[in-house]
Amino acid sequence: MKIAVDCRYLGKSGIGRVLEGILDNLNYNEHKFYLVGDEKKLDKYEEAVIIDDKTNPFSKKGLFKFNKKRINKECDCIIIPNFIIPLGIKIPVHSIMHDLIFLDIKETVNGKSDYLIKKYLLKRCMKKSVTIACVSAFTKSRCEYHFKKYSHKCYVNYNGLSKDIQEFGKNFEYVNKDDTVVYVGNIKRHKGLNTLLAAFAEAEKSGLKLKIIGEKEGFLTGLKLDETAYKNVEFTGRIDNDALYKEIGKAKYLIQPSIYEGFGLPPLEALYLGTQPILSDIEVFREIYSGFPVKFFTDTADLAQLMQTKPDKINCRNAILEKFSFSKFVNNINV
């Protein structure tokens, strides 16, 4: 079978890391894959046919200028790692649904027109896709809520851990943790950074430091980031994977204070690297992480207190890999 994959998301926050996990686990001997994206980012996949496309998949140009003519002519189907299906695709589509935050939390869109566009694209994805891999039962339930007519196409397919973090973890162990907590991800409102900073304002009195691994530009927490008030907060900017894993692995805790997620990958990576996550008590985190050594918080005071406690010793790699695997994820995509 000849299968196309929209790879333009590589390097784009969480979805890019999920896509990389998928690409690293495709069976290039069983099928012929056409990878559409930046050829420099795809050069390691030598067995595949690379179609160079540097358009932003979130842009109008990316929606209209995708090389659908060649894809429609040469491929049997296409895997879209998000809900944005390029216009003009005529072959069967297998999509991946991460969340429906634009419909669930309208503050995440820029006005009514942006909301209507995203709602249209989401509905189009539900209607046009042959199968829809939902990264959690929570996400599947939101698909059923918003698009009941098409929800029979949905199935749960959990994310996994990339090959590079597994390789990194073979020779990595921090016995003595730094007195630092880390946050990994983007800095949009639903990520709960206002709660994290408010809690840290109390916790830093104990000498704790906070590293926010993501861009400071566009900081949207509802709080003013006063450098004197938060002198122990460091914004690292975007860092490469090895540097990221080191920061996670040597941290006292990884904090994920989100008010909404579709899955939440950083806590899984933290557990694999022996760092205990502190998570907001939301439905999807209970689904994914119950049974693993994580701590849940309910409010700012609770989070501040937990950050100052001693973390548990974490040793659950085998259990993680048994439940969460990108090789399983790929095998479950029914193309």
Radius of gyration, whole Å: 20 Å
- Biggest sheet architecture: 7 strands, parallel
Biggest sheet strand line-up: 3-2-1-4-5-6-7
Rough outline: globular
Number of helices: 14
Order of helices and strands: EHEEHHEEHHEHEHEHEEHEHEHEHHH
Number of strands: 13
Low-confidence stretches: 218-223
Query: How many angstroms separate the termini?
Result: 9 Å
Query: Structural class of the secondary elements?
Result: alpha/beta
Please report which band the strand proportion falls in: under 5%, 5-15%, 15-25%, 25-35%, 35-45% or over 45%: 15-25%
Fraction of helical residues: 25-40%
Q: Mean of residue pLDDT? A: 91
Précis, in short:
This protein is an alpha/beta fold. Helix content is 36%, strand content 17%. Helix 8 (193-203) packs across helix 12 (300-307).
Q: Any key phrases for this structure?
A:
alpha/beta, 17% strand, single chain, 335 residues, globular, six-stranded parallel beta sheet, seven-stranded parallel beta sheet, 14 helices
Describe this structure in words.
- With 335 residues, the chain is α/β, with parallel strands linked by helices.
- It is 36% helix and 17% strand.
- It has helices spanning 13-23, 60-64, 68-74, 101-104, 111-128, 137-146, 163-170, 193-203, 241-250, 266-272, 283-289, 300-307, 317-323, 326-332; strands at 2-6, 32-37, 49-52, 77-80, 93-97, 129-134, 154-156, 180-184, 209-213, 233-235, 253-256, 276-280, 295-297.
- Strands 3-2-1-4-5-6-7 form a 7-stranded parallel sheet, with helices on one face.
- The longest helix has 18 residues, at 111-128.
- The chain is globular, with a radius of gyration of 20 Å.
- It starts with a strand and ends with a helix.
- The model is unreliable at 218-223 (pLDDT under 50).
